[in-house]
Design goal:
A hairpin with a 2-residue loop joins strand 19 and strand 20. The protein contains eight helices and 20 strands. It folds into three domains: about 100 residues, no CATH class; about 140 residues, Jelly Rolls; about 70 residues, Phage tail protein beta-alpha-beta fold (3-Layer(bab) Sandwich), CATH 3.55.50. The strands form four sheets. Strands 1-2-5-6-8-9-12-13 form an eight-stranded mixed beta sheet, with no helix packed on it. With about 325 residues, the chain is an alpha+beta fold.
Length: about 325
């Protein structure tokens, strides 16, 4: 059953005060549990009854209260409730309106569009599949799963600011007068027009920036005058532990395989390959026998379905791939 913490999150969302983390938590709960989905449906029905109550002033509030009790499973004390008093009517409708927060989640399909109380701000969450969206200036953002972006309906006259939590690939429309700035937590990534990748959830909390074309300036919010210019084929990594940005010409192209659909493995261990496959295909693959985790493979997969990749792993490494519900298991004998 949905707990009080869950409803607190919904109240924050409905009042326009939820953080990106709150929104992701709400959506993940509804995705993983039928109980939360049922709560959504029940409260939607309750909201519809409430809307009708605004129009039909002769509604039987006592009857509606009993319906609400049945829907949410609450228990009332044995003392008498004055249903017909104006005070209790207002309290009832205020309660039901708060419950209607779930309605605004709109079934939470793959992607959730929402607006905060500020009318010119939009939030977009990619839930269970990669998605692509066009920004007000014509720039295009490709988002990996479990990623959130926040941006204004219309960029201001001086800059194009967008907030990111997760992984996204940007194809920025050139505009020399209005720099495009990614708010990536502790750092900013600033460009005029280019294609690049940003990940705010890297290993150990690192923020990663990889440039495909053009140039990107990466800098700590606290030291904006100390910029690192990243060029094509290079990457910048901010470490929150060291509070430092480092630059490297060694780029893991598989970082953006979810976007490019190209995976390159050179003498790579099966354990690392599985990790990349889980990220790229948003799946759950598990190695059952630790002795095969170190088996190595050299191969390139370009625009291949997951099934085709797994078939090659079986044929090349001599392992066995088994489907167990939502999980894919890899087993076999130790490498020769």
């Amino acid at each position: 059953m949905a707990d009080s913490t869950y409803y607190d999150l919904l109240i924050k969302y409905f009042s326009g005060n939820s953080s990106p983390e709150d929104m992701l938590l709400i959506s993940s709960k509804i995705k993983e549990s039928d109980e939360y989905k049922k709560a959504f449906i029940d409260f939607r029905k309750t909201w519809e009854l409430t809307e009708k109550s605004k129009i039909i002033s002769t509604v039987d509030s006592g009857l509606e209260w009993n319906k609400l009790k049945n829907k949410i499973g609450t228990k009332t004390s044995s003392h008498r409730i004055e249903i017909n008093s104006e005070k209790n009517k207002k309290g009832f409708f205020a309660f039901v309106k708060i419950a209607a927060a779930i309605v605004l989640l709109a079934v939470l399909s793959y992607i959730i569009y929402t607006k905060t109380q500020t009318p010119d701000t939009r939030k977009l969450i990619a839930q269970t599949q990669n998605t692509e969206t066009k920004l007000p200036d014509g720039s295009v953002v490709s988002m990996n799963t479990n990623t959130l972006i926040e941006f204004p309906e219309n960029f201001d006259a001086e800059k194009r600011m967008i907030k990111l939590e997760g992984e996204a690939f940007f194809n920025v429309k050139p505009d020399k007068k209005k720099p495009f700035i990614i708010d990536a937590g502790p750092v900013y990534a600033e460009v005029l027009g280019t294609t690049f990748y940003v990940n705010t959830k890297g290993k150990d909390g690192n923020v990663e920036v990889i440039v495909k074309t053009g140039k990107v300036a990466v800098y700590n919010k606290n030291t904006p005058d100390q910029k690192i210019i990243v060029e094509p084929g290079e990457q910048a990594v901010f470490s929150p532990v060291l509070n430092k940005i480092s630059e490297s010409i060694s780029v893991n192209e598989n970082s953006i395989a979810w976007k490019t659909r190209k995976l390159v493995f050179t003498d790579q261990k099966l354990n690392d390959i599985v990790s990349e496959l889980n990220k790229t295909y948003n799946t759950n693959i598990r190695i059952l026998n630790p002795q095969i985790a170190g088996c190595k493979l050299t191969a390139t997969f370009e625009d291949q379905e997951l099934g085709a990749v797994l078939n090659i792993l079986e044929a090349t490494l001599g392992v066995e791939v088994i489907q167990k519900g939502a999980q894919i298991q890899i087993t076999g004998q130790a490498c020769k």
